[in-house]
Design goal:
Blueprint (H helix, E strand, L loop, with lengths): L4 H14 L3 E4 L14 E5 L2 E7 L10 H12 L3 E6 L14 E4 H9 L1
Parallel strand pairs: 3-4, 4-5
Antiparallel strand pairs: 1-2, 2-3
Keywords: Hydrolase
InterPro entries: Restrct_endonuc-II-like, tRNA_endonuc-like_dom_sf
GO molecular function, one term: hydrolase activity
Length: 112
C-alpha cells in the first residue's frame, strides 16, 4: 500500500518519538516562514538533520529551494536529505549536494 506524504510523516514522527529523538516539524507556507526549509529538523546522535519528506509517487519531487537548503545543511556539517517510504530515486537537482534515502535505509544508517 502506498503511503501519502501525510501518512508517511506520521510514521516518521512516531519513529523519532519512539527513539527519543529531538525534532521539530516545520510548518511552512506562510509569509512569516522561510521557503525551502525541510519538513523535519532533528538532532540524531548529536548531528543536525534536515529531512524533506516525500511520498513514493513519481510526481512528488523536491523543489530547487528544498534542494538548495538540503545542500546548505550538508555544506555546514549536518545531514540534509530527502526521505521516502520505499523508493530511492536519484536527487532531482544534481547540481546541489544532497541525497535520497528510503525509510529502511534511514533506520539502518542512523538507528541500528
Amino acid at each position: 500500500m502506498k503511503l501519502s506524504e501525510g501518512e508517511f510523516q506520521k510514521k516518521v514522527i512516531k519513529y523519532l518519538k519512539d527513539n527519543d529523538v529531538w525534532f521539530v516539524k516545520y510548518w511552512g507556507g506562510s509569509k512569516f516562514t522561510k521557503e525551502g526549509v525541510p519538513d523535519i529538523l532533528a538532532c540524531i546522535n548529536g548531528e543536525f538533520h534536515g529531512i524533506e519528506l516525500k511520498s513514493d509517487g513519481t510526481s512528488y519531487n523536491e523543489t530547487v529551494l528544498q534542494a538548495r537548503s538540503l545542500a546548505g545543511i550538508n555544506a555546514n556539517g549536518g545531514s540534509g536529505y530527502v526521505l521516502r517510504p520505499t523508493k530511492t530515486p536519484n536527487p532531482k537537482h544534481p547540481e546541489f549536494d544532497y541525497y535520497c534515502l528510503n525509510f529502511k535505509q534511514w533506520k539502518e544508517r542512523w538507528f541500528e
